[in-house]
């Protein structure tokens, strides 16, 4: 029984708008992917990390894992080049798992400040018998469903969603390995339009009819997407020390 993590770091970070892939952008002087890898290794429940690197930047990524381990730990790192979509990058990571792995955590490098405690909560829930587990936070905004926008960009409200039933989900997401592999195989086989509707691995499991469970998420696991998210992450990091 071994738990491995797939750390997806192969995106370009278009919305962040830096001169390098987002996972290599510094937060407190340390690249996002290294923060995320340390949290996975620091959880104590992850034996190996498969880092899915941006194509053309594998050497730069490898430089952050001297001796083939997550710095400060004995957790081994395997590097694989990513794909054109997040889903393809996760699939590349899945293909690199050793035979002894039975539980897989999929984590976004962009959620650099997710804590080791969150990693443990997700892994524990999978080991307790849930085949697919995601962290999620209650939604604080009021959510409206809208119709098509007019030329000025105004859209008519069609209804207000009951937000008490909603959760904004995060990573790491945890899975029984066979479940995640089946979900990815089915996702890859489906029409591309339909497959694109699943923006996370849990969505692929749902499409397969697998029951997905939500455990409490954390503010620190918020994704760095826009420049303001990076500024907020700097504040969260500064508050830790
Ligand atoms: N990701 C990946 N491979 C891709 C696309 C995304 O491994 N082809 C990873 C990113 O590196 C990130 C996570 O998936 O850690 C979430 O994706 P997102 O926040 O959208 O990151 P980017 O795709 O890099 O950003 P953008 O969409 O703004 O270009
Ligand atoms: Mg993206």
Automatic annotation (TrEMBL):
The record marks 163, 223 as: Positions MEP for the nucleophilic attack. Catalyzes the formation of 4-diphosphocytidyl-2-C-methyl-D-erythritol from CTP and 2-C-methyl-D-erythritol 4-phosphate (MEP). PROSITE patterns: ISPD. It comes from the Bacteria. This is 2-C-methyl-D-erythritol 4-phosphate cytidylyltransferase. Keywords: Isoprene biosynthesis, Nucleotidyltransferase, Transferase. GO terms for molecular function: 2-C-methyl-D-erythritol 4-phosphate cytidylyltransferase activity. Its EC number is 2.7.7.60. The lineage of its organism: Bacteria, Bacillati, Actinomycetota, Actinomycetes, Micrococcales. Pathway: Isoprenoid biosynthesis; isopentenyl diphosphate biosynthesis via DXP pathway; isopentenyl diphosphate from 1-deoxy-D-xylulose 5-phosphate: step 2/6. The record marks 15, 22 as: Transition state stabilizer. It is an enzyme of class 2 (transferase). It catalyses: 2-C-methyl-D-erythritol 4-phosphate + CTP + H(+) = 4-CDP-2-C-methyl-D-erythritol + diphosphate. Belongs to the IspD/TarI cytidylyltransferase family. IspD subfamily.
């Amino acid at each position: 029984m071994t738990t491995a993590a797939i750390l997806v770091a192969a995106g370009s970070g278009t919305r962040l708008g830096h001169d390098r892939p987002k996972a290599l952008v510094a937060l407190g002087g340390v690249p996002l992917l290294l923060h995320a890898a340390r949290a996975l290794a620091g959880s104590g429940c992850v034996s190996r990390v498969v880092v899915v690197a941006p194509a053309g930047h594998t050497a730069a990524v490898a430089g952050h894992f001297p001796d083939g381990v997550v710095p400060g730990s004995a957790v081994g790192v395997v590097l694989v080049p990513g794909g054109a979509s997040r889903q393809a990058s996760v699939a590349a990571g899945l293909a690199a798992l050793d035979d002894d792995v039975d539980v897989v955590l999929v984590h976004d490098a962009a959620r650099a400040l997710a804590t080791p405690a969150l990693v443990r909560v997700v892994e524990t829930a999978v080991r307790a018998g849930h085949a697919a587990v995601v962290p999620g936070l209650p939604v604080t905004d009021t959510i409206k469903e809208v119709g098509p926008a007019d030329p000025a960009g105004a859209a008519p409200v069609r209804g207000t969603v009951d937000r008490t039933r909603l959760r904004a989900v995060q990573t790491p997401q945890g899975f029984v390995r066979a479940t995640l592999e089946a979900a990815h195989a089915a996702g890859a086989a489906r029409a591309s339009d339909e497959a694109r509707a699943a923006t996370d691995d849990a969505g692929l499991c749902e499409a397969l009819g697998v029951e997905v469970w939500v455990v409490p998420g954390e503010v620190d696991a918020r994704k760095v997407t826009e420049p303001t998210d990076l500024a907020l992450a700097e504040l969260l990091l500064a508050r830790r020390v």
